[in-house]
């Protein structure tokens, strides 16, 4: 090109190619977000059972300062007795008992840094559903452990993204 | 998933709202328009982020919005009908010095808007010196001066 237009088509073509590669990466990022790589999706939802009547639904991937939850279903509770849920230190650190449903009647600190959460259950109820609210404050890899007192523990990994 | 869906819903909603608002609305930003844009941004932010202040979410939301924009631009390239529906078409509003009133009324612009663009872009002060004024797709008004160019005329006057 003559005149003052300093065209560089070779460079421009390379830039266009790079742009398109970038688009592909961007679409891939969005697709993985839909799949749940960054939490809240099929890849993140998880469910675990102890085999003795406790089921836990949780997210594999959490995000810093984003609320999340763990649903604990306890069947075959001993009628009239409180449910005592033991949670590991990692989980205790990100737990928000006050916003959990039901809120535990009592929270007891354990020796290992974990917590014992005592939930009151209606007399005669044979099963209960507990919703634990979480809000992690720092990026981390957590080893979360939940057990109903006297039962088998469930151990699962949770990844907190920044 | 939820993050992407929210971002896409808002993208679609804003696209429709601004399409309905018409091209003149935010093309020339007045002080009030600026305030309006800020308020819209503020309202949108809450819906997009909720209580989640994580870096990850911000990045996913931005990626989703930009990806939607790129995808839409590609779709517009493939489907001219889509392009027409979303971006509209240029409209001639002054032809050979004559204002096309009905078009101007529909597009919600008046002679003053055309003259303003004429002064600013071409130094033309009279409607009769305009060969074409075109309301472009982006909402700006392009001015093509009449053949007896106002600029030439000025040079002539100064030269005398």
Q: Explain this structure to me?
A:
The complex is a heterodimer of chains A (162) and B (160). By secondary structure, chain A is α+β, with helices and mostly antiparallel strands. Chain A contains two helices and ten strands. Chain A has helices at 9-35, 89-94; strands spanning 45-49, 54-59, 61-63, 68-75, 83-87, 106-109, 115-119, 127-134, 140-148, 154-161. In chain A, the strands form two sheets. Chain A has a six-stranded mixed beta sheet with strand order 3-10-9-5-7-6. In chain A, strand 6 (106-109) and strand 7 form a beta hairpin. Chain A starts with 8 loop residues before the first helix and ends with a strand. With 160 residues, chain B is an alpha+beta fold. Chain B has eight helices and four strands. Chain B has helices at residues 2-21, 24-27, 31-49, 55-78, 80-87, 101-107, 111-122, 150-159, and strands at residues 91-95, 98-99, 130-135, 141-145. In chain B, strand 1 (91-95) and strand 2 form a beta hairpin. The longest helix of chain B has 24 residues, at 55-78. Classes of the chains: A alpha+beta (162), B alpha+beta (160). At the A-B interface, helix 1 of A face helix 1 and helix 4 of B.
What number is the mean pLDDT of chain A? Answer: 88
For the sheet with most strands of chain B, the description reads:
4 strands, antiparallel
In DSSP terms (H or I, runs of 4 or more residues), the helix count of chain B works out at 8
The CATH topology of the largest domain in chain A is Immunoglobulin-like
The proportion of residues forming helix of chain B, as a percent range, comes to 55-70%
Portion in helices of chain A: 10-25%
Low-confidence stretches of chain B: 153-160
Shape of chain A: elongated
Structural class label of chain B: alpha+beta
- What's the structural domain tally of chain A? 2
Strand composition percent of chain A: 35-45%
Nearest-angstrom radius of gyration of chain B?
A: 21 Å
Strand content of chain B: 5-15%
Spatial shape of chain B: elongated
List the helices and strands of chain A in order. HEEEEEHEEEEE
- Secondary structure: number of strands of chain A: 10
**CATH class membership of the largest domain in chain A:** Mainly Beta
């Amino acid at each position: 090109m003559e005149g003052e237009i300093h065209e560089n088509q070779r460079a421009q073509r390379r830039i266009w190619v790079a742009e398109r590669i970038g688009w592909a990466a961007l679409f891939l990022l969005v697709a993985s977000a839909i799949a749940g790589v960054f939490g809240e999706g099929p890849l993140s939802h998880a469910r675990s059972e102890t085999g003795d009547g406790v089921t836990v639904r949780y997210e594999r991937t959490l995000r810093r300062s984003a609320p999340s939850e763990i649903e604990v279903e306890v069947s075959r509770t001993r009628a009239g007795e409180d449910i005592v849920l033991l949670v590991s230190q990692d989980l205790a650190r990100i737990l928000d008992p006050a916003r959990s449903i039901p809120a535990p009647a009592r929270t007891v600190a354990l020796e290992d840094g974990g917590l014992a959460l005592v939930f009151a259950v209606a007399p005669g109820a044979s099963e209960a559903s507990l919703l634990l609210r979480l809000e992690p404050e720092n990026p981390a890899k957590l080893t979360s452990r939940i057990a109903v007192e006297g039962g088998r523990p469930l151990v699962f990994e949770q990844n907190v993204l920044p | 998933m939820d993050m992407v869906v929210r971002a896409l819903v808002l993208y679609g909603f804003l696209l429709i709202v601004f399409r309905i608002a018409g091209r003149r609305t935010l093309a020339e930003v007045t002080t009030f328009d600026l305030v309006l844009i800020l308020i819209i941004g503020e309202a949108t932010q809450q819906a997009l982020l909720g209580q989640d202040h994580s870096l990850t979410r911000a990045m996913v939301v931005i990626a989703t919005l930009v990806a939607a924009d790129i995808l839409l631009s590609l779709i517009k390239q493939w489907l001219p009908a889509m392009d027409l529906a979303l971006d509209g078409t240029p409209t001639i509003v002054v032809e050979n010095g004559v204002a096309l009133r009905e078009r101007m009324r529909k597009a919600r612009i008046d002679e003053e808007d055309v003259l303003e663009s004429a002064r600013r872009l071409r130094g033309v002060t009279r409607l009769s010196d305009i060969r074409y004024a075109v309301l472009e797709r982006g909402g700006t008004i392009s001015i093509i001066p009449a053949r007896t160019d106002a600029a030439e005329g000025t040079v002539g006057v100064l030269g005398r």
